Amino acid sequence: MAKRRANGEGTITKRTDGRYHAAAYVYRPDGTRTRKFVYGKTREEVADKLTELQEKTRQGIPAASSTMAFGNYLTYWLATIAPERLKPATLNSYEGLTRLYIRPALGKKRLNRLSPADVRRFLTEFKASCLCCLRRADHERPEGKRGCCAVGKCCKRLPSARTVQYVHAVLRSALQQAMREELIARNVARIVETPTVTRKEVSPLDSAEVRILLKTARTHRLYALWLLLVSTGLRRGEALALTWSDVDLTNRQLRVRRNVQRIRREILFGTPKTTRSIRTVSLPQHLVRALAHHLEHQERERTVAGKKWQPMSGQPDGLIFTTQTGRVIDPRSLNRMLTIVCRNAKVRRVRVHDLRHTCASLLLSRGVDARTIMETLGHSTITMTLDTYAHVMDTTLRAAAERMDDALNLDDLDDESEEEASDD
Questions:
Q1: Residue 147 backbone class (left: φ over 0; alpha: ψ -120 to 50; beta: rest)
Q2: Most confident by average pLDDT, 129-138, 160-169, 195-204, 295-304
Q3: Does pTM top 0.90 for this prediction?
Q4: Residues near 273 by Cβ (< 8 Å), separated by ≥ 6?
Q5: How far apart are alpha carbons 377 and 281 in whole angstroms?
Q6: Among 2.60.120.200, 2.40.128.20, 2.170.150.70, 1.10.150.130, what is the CATH number of 70-191?
Q7: Alpha helices in 12-137 (DSSP H)
């Protein structure tokens, strides 16, 4: 006689349509318990789903249901699913967009009742709403807090097209997971057309401005960093996470394999933005000399600091760019430093990321092909490179036209035609 399953252990039953389903008691996001069903084509498939469900229940992780409020589902998704698939910075931005904009507007809707019209209406209203007003939701700002919407005046600070697109991406990603868990039959956010984004033209420094900036920065303790950002186009987090073991000064190469970001109050080291961001970059000779000089200067700083040289817990050994006490540099402070350098150099103020654009623009102006620039910058696709820098490719396009003239060599044909005409 088969042993009877214990109460709450779950049951597996064959349905009349040939499929199997199982049921077990799980936790709701509000802490109460309910019975949840999972389905599959085979008994083994359902048994695996049931085991996963029970394991989450033992860990106290809530399970989602199709009738739960969409706001509760977002809480479940951000707490249990998203952390395993998203990088910390992306997860942090998703949480902010959800808390400020999505949950106040759609949070009370039932997950299985959310329609394309609901999503379309939300995006339309979001595009036309002031961000300050949206962040207030249905609560007034506390007294003493400054802000245009707190005193009855609206600043009309509308969300950018990129922000609208990003909010739509959060909805699409969350509902796609609900589909995978068979809570809904379709992803209504995918049915709604993605908002278009007009790409802004980048405003890099020109070669004259770069020379003035670097000349002024020569006395700065992080001169090698500014030169590195201009010469290689590394992202801010990639440059600050470099260690001396990543650099081969003899062969004039460096390896990008990690980055550093500030997430709320924590500074975290992680992997670069995309797979293609893990790359090897060749170094110009002037940068090799600057890095060698920086290494000597860092050794002197370490000697002067003595016991005060205390790297942050969790940071890699041998960081190239640190504070005067050996700690990793806060990525946010780099923009403030660059602002001061720009002011002293009397060039227009730019962000650290604009030095990456400057690198690409300088390479394009010297006729370097887009594929090489894509590999240098670590773009995921060449389309991104071409779309971002299309407006600064005049030199490359002009050179391509001149090469076509050389390839066709039509000048000789024109001369022959003129000679034939004169003979006639």
A1: left
A2: 295-304
A3: no
A4: 87, 235, 259, 378
A5: 9
A6: 1.10.150.130
A7: 43-58, 70-76, 82-85, 88-97, 103-106, 116-127, 131-136
Distance CA 280, CA 242 (A): 12
Rounded Cα gap, residues 58 and 423, in angstroms: 99
pLDDT value at residue 39: 83
Find out whether 78 and 94 touch, Cβ atoms under 8 Å: yes
Region 290-301: mean pLDDT is: 95
353: Cα within 13 Å, side-chain hemisphere:
4
Across the chain, which distance is largest between two alpha carbons, in Å?
Answer: 112
Fold of 207-400: hpI Integrase; Chain A (1.10.443)
End-to-end CA distance of the chain: 112
Q: How many CA atoms does the CB half-sphere of 394 hold within 13 Å?
A: 2
Q: Do domains 70-191 and 207-400 have the same CATH topology?
A: no
Residue carrying the six token digits 């670097």? 214
Given this model, what pLDDT does residue 217 score? 94
| pLDDT of the residue at 143 | 41
Burial of 302 (0-12, 13-18, 19+ CB in 10 A): middle
The tens digit of pLDDT for each residue in 257-292 reads 999 999 888 899 998 878 888 999 999 999 999 999
d(CA 308, CA 303): 10
Of 317, 314, 356, 316, the closest CA to residue 335 belongs to 356
Domain residue ranges in the chain: 11-58, 70-191, 207-400
**189-243 confidence digits (pLDDT tens):** 999 987 776 666 778 888 899 999 999 999 999 999 999 999 999 999 999 999 9
Alpha helix (H) residue ranges in 137-242: 161-180, 188-191, 207-217, 223-232, 236-240
Q: Stretch 83-100: mean pLDDT, rounded?
A: 91
